Structure formats: C-alpha cells, structure tokens
Automatic annotation (TrEMBL):
This is Nodulation protein A. It comes from Bradyrhizobium jicamae. The gene is nodA. GO terms for molecular function: acyltransferase activity. It is found in: Cytoplasm. The keyword Acyltransferase applies. GO terms for cellular component: cytosol. Coiled coil: none annotated. Belongs to the NodA family.
C-alpha cells in the first residue's frame, strides 16, 4: 500500500466537504487519468522524486493497475485516493485470494483526512467483491499513520516480521527482475476471520505492487 504523508494538519474541518466516488477502471476517462496523475505527482513528490516519476505523462498508476478506485473530491479537485485489485498471493506455501489495496494518497493540505476515511468508503466495496481478505503492505516507518485505522477493533490487523517479494513493473538490463523488502502487512478480514490468515514470513506477490 503506497502511502504519501505530510506534516501538515491544515484543512481538518474540510472532511465533511469531500465527496467520494467509487469507479471501475474502465469508467475512467482520459481527463480522469490526467487529473489523478497530477494528484499523485504532487502527493508523492515530497517523499522523493523517484516516487513521483511513475506518474509522468498522464499515468495514474505506478506498478500494477487497480480495477476499482475510491476517489475523494472537493472544490480543489482530487483530495484523496485508494485503489484495489483482486489477486492471488502466496503466504508461505498457501495461495490466498485478496483485494490488494494501494495507491493511497491524501492531498497535503488535507493530511488529517487519513486512510481511515478512505477505508470507510472502500470497505463496503470489498464486501461487495466477496473477497476473503483485504491486504496491503507499508514500510515499517509508516506504522504510526495506521493508528486511527487500528482503533476500530476487528477492522484491520497489522502483521510484522514479514518479507514481501514483488516483480518490478519494468525490466532493466543488469538489474534483478524482483524486489524483496521488509514490510508491515495490513490484513482486513472481509469474508473470513483473521484467524484463517495463513502463517508465513514470506509473501510472494508474483506480480508488481499496486
């Protein structure tokens, strides 16, 4: 789960003025992709230019492409975004169907909107998709930004001590085609209990990160 963060807390009172749109990827028009591309460049740019580069040229995804998106809008345009993609991952030796969550971002002036507000809209979507689990991975340094999300008992569980291997979205000569990294895994029990999540310290995406 890509998360863009900022130290700004300005705009907390604007939450109620954000309207949310749930849309399938095929419903997006060229103008939507261009607007989202600009949103991601500005939102991810402060975390490093390399994080903003994938969104050049009107591209609104970085690795894998989502199938459904939750997009928040206000009077200034795109305010927040989170995407989901159904896929099988391998946890240890067990194949698990998940809806991977990623491409999360909040416009810097609305930092306080938080991932919790996006998930309030996305959670019913995951239920409609009928997946056993929602799934995301964040860098350990970003754990504090999940605090509000974890305040709701049973909504999500964070698993530490897990390594994640993914393919890179583009193949380059003289570079490995996969990347392995330490990650905090966030699991949302949707159709099954968290007790049914397989044990294992290695997760294979067998594809690029969302």
């Amino acid at each position: 789960m890509n998360i863009a963060v900022s130290s700004s807390t300005k705009g907390l009172s604007m939450r109620s003025q954000v309207r949310w749109r749930v849309c399938w990827e095929n419903e997006l028009q060229l103008a939507d992709h261009i607007e989202l591309s600009e949103f991601f460049r500005k939102t991810y740019g402060p975390t490093g230019a390399f994080n903003a580069n994938p969104f050049e040229g009107g591209r609104s995804w970085a690795g894998a492409r989502p199938e459904v998106r939750v997009i928040g809008y206000d009077t200034r345009g795109v305010a927040a975004h989170i995407g989901a993609l159904r896929r099988f991952i391998k946890v240890g030796e067990v194949d698990v169907l998940v809806a991977e969550l990623g491409l999360y971002g909040v416009r810097p002036d609305l930092e306080g909107l938080g991932i919790t507000h996006s998930m309030r809209v996305m959670y019913p979507v995951l239920q409609q998709l009928g997946v056993p689990f929602g799934f995301g991975a964040v860098r350990p340094a970003l754990k504090e930004h999940l605090t509000r999300l974890l305040e709701r008992p049973g909504l999500a569980t964070v698993l530490s001590g897990v390594r994640m291997r993914s393919t890179l979205p583009d193949v380059y000569l003289n570079l490995p085609p996969t990347r392995t990294e330490d990650a905090l895994v966030v699991v949302f029990p949707i159709g099954r209990s968290i007790s049914e999540w397989p044990t294992g310290t290695m997760i294979e995406r067998n594809g690029p990160e969302l």
